[in-house]
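Here is one such tokenized protein:
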Amino acid sequence: MSKHTEFLAGERVDDVLFFLHEDAVSNPEALADYADPVDDGIVLVLPGDRGRSAFQSATGIDPMGLAQEAMKTEGEVHDDCTDANCPVAEEEPEENHTTKFVFAFAEAQNEEVGGIYAEGDVVHAYAVCACGERYSDKWVVEG
């Protein structure tokens, strides 16, 4: 089973996942030893701090800053974390709304917090669109 699949199943809550669109990475081959290829790019699943640092190195974006900014706008990140639906795409159909990056982490089930956190592990995902929009999504891991 790939690290990508394990992450999506809630089995890697200490790791982070990030998707890089093929058009957003100048040298995806350099990451081939660490990444899982997907249709439009690559996915990396790395231990927390190392993963955050690798995301920032690859994208030039601070992942915690991205999370804070993206939480202001709700969007839809696909549950495989390799694509998303930009929330402004309908308002700006002439723009390019390709998902450039997705950064995600999972939070273990926590019944004390309540809400969706009591239902199971929760994936928090943050997307960056080619149009510049940054948005977030979260969901309970199906398992």
